[in-house]
């Protein structure tokens, strides 16, 4: 998933901005009906972080080849 998302920087940037920890160390965006969220970093934040890393690696490889 991160490999596909790496080509969509607008998506992973939005996910990283939205999926932040709350004061209890849970994801503020991943709420259940009971109000508790997934422990942070949530799975979406981890995937988006991996996508960002891949994007930056590819960008670095592209500029290094110039």
Question: Characteristics of this structure?
Answer:
two-stranded antiparallel ribbon; 3 helices
How would you describe this protein?
- α2 crosses α3.
- Helices cover 55% and strands 14% of the residues.
- By secondary structure, the chain is α+β, with helices and mostly antiparallel strands.
Helix fraction, binned, reads 40-55%
Net shape = elongated
How would a crystallographer describe the biggest sheet? 2 strands, antiparallel
**Count, helices:** 3
Helix/strand-derived category reads alpha+beta
- The average pLDDT value, as a whole number, equals 92
Order of helices and strands: HHEEH
Ends apart, CA distance between termini: 28 Å
Strand order within the widest beta sheet: 1-2
Number of strands: 2
Beta-strand level of the residues, as a percent range? 5-15%
A few lines on this structure:
The protein is an alpha+beta fold and 66 residues long.
Give the SSE map:
Elements: H1 2-5, H2 9-18, E1 26-31, E2 37-39, H3 43-64
